[in-house]
Specification:
It is built from five helices and two strands. It has about 90 residues and is mostly helical. The protein has a single domain, classed as lambda repressor-like DNA-binding domains (434 Repressor (Amino-terminal Domain)). Strands 1-2 form a two-stranded antiparallel sheet. The radius of gyration is 13 Å and the shape is globular.
Amino acid sequence: MARQSAQKRIAAAESVRKNITYLMVLNDKTQPQVAEYLGISVPTVQRKFSDPQRWTLEELISLSNLFNVSVGLIICGEIRFEKEVLRA
């Protein structure tokens, strides 16, 4: 049971990473631009992309404002870059 729970957390974190990456591409934003917007260093943003469980709620809210989407879309949404479809 604990293993299954850990796998779900990893899958959710990977979804957050993918969604943020897609939103950055759709909005023509780079990691340095995201770092500056969040007030953190580029290496910190890079670490967050390598371990998506590191994103704080405050950072996710800020990113939702930057990309003009809901936090729910970033966390649980399905963003399909090829069709540019955003839905939560």
